[in-house]
Structures are given as structure tokens and as C-alpha cells.
């Protein structure tokens, strides 16, 4: 899974 | 950002505002589970620790601040200002039965064994079950004020809309996060019977009555 760096979702 | 996530965040914001207004206007937190509100405050606190470390966007920062402030304000209203109206006898769900498995699962199933990631994971799993004390309280009292059911509908819809957001992001951005998806599906499923009652009863002007 390509993890989004940092969390952009609330 | 996509329309599903935006609608989800708006629905979430709406739920929090509905609850704050209900308690403030009626000067009563009858029928509201303080335990669920505590779990939500814990969820936002452990999830938004990166509020000051990494800046995502003005929108992201603004919403995090609003969710944190509103959840602590709600707790203050329930346990301090309108404490006399807090229905302690019906808010009896044993939250330790939630905190323990959530803690174990976040230590076992996470993306990275670092403090910030474990806390994020913990908050994701906790949010999935945080509404249980509230749903339990509604089933114990056998009914809920219509304003409380609107709150629950908005709150339950938010994560349901996030599921659409994850489908969208999977196909459009080939992004997915199995932890968030698994917890989000569980969280939404927990509202199913409430959604049924809300659609079939509350929207027809009847009170939300649960078979006691």
C-alpha cells in the first residue's frame, strides 16, 4: 500500500 | 479532497454543532452519553497530535481545531455546567471493555511501530466503537429526542461518506489505508439499526422508540 505521507484525512 | 470526504467532514461538523446547540439551548444533556463524548475527545486528541508538527492545509488545521474545541466544550457542558442533568444511571456502558481491545489491536495491527503512528491507529480503532455507550444508552432509555437522533444520523453518515471517499481515492489516486477502511466500515455498520429506525420513524415525525 502506498501510504500517504502524513495524514491528510481528518 | 473529494466531494465525499467534504460532505463527510461537513456532516461530522454538523453533528458536533447539533449536539452543542442541543445541550446549550435546552440547558440539559439528558439522553446524551458523557462516556461517548469522552471517547470522542480522546479520539481527536490522539489523532490530531500532528496539529502543530505537520501542516496539511488551512482547512485541515481549522477542522482539527474545531473538532478538538467542540468535543472538550461538550464534555465541559455535560460534566460541569449541566452536570445536574447528566443521566448517570443510564450511561453505564463499561468503556474499559472498549479501551482494552482497542489498545491491544493498535499495538498489534498498525502501519509502523512508532508512538505517533500507534496513537493514530488507537484513535482510528477507538472512534469505530466510541458511539457504543451512546447507542447503549438510547436502547436503555428506549427512546431518544429527535434532536439527538439527528445528531446520531449526521455522525453516523460522516464515516459512511468517508467509505465512499476511500472508494473514490482507491480508483482515482490508488490510495488506500486498510486500517482506516476496516475501522470505518465497522463504525458505520454499528449505526445500521439506528439508520433503519431513523429513516422509518424519525423522518415520519415519530419519536425514535427502540424496542426496549
TrEMBL record, chain B:
Source domain of life: Eukaryota
Compartment annotation: Endoplasmic reticulum membrane
Alphabetized GO MF terms: ER retention sequence binding
UniProt entry keywords in alphabetical sequence: Endoplasmic reticulum, ER-Golgi transport, Membrane, Protein transport, Receptor, Transmembrane, Transmembrane helix, Transport
TM spans (from-to): 62-80, 92-113, 119-138, 150-168, 174-199
BP-aspect Gene Ontology terms: protein retention in ER lumen; protein transport; vesicle-mediated transport
Cross-referenced Pfam families: ER_lumen_recept
Gene Ontology CC: endoplasmic reticulum membrane
Membrane topology recorded in Swiss-Prot or TrEMBL: Multi-pass membrane protein
Similarity comment: family membership: Belongs to the ERD2 family.
Protein name in UniProt: ER lumen protein-retaining receptor
Protein's organism: Allacma fusca
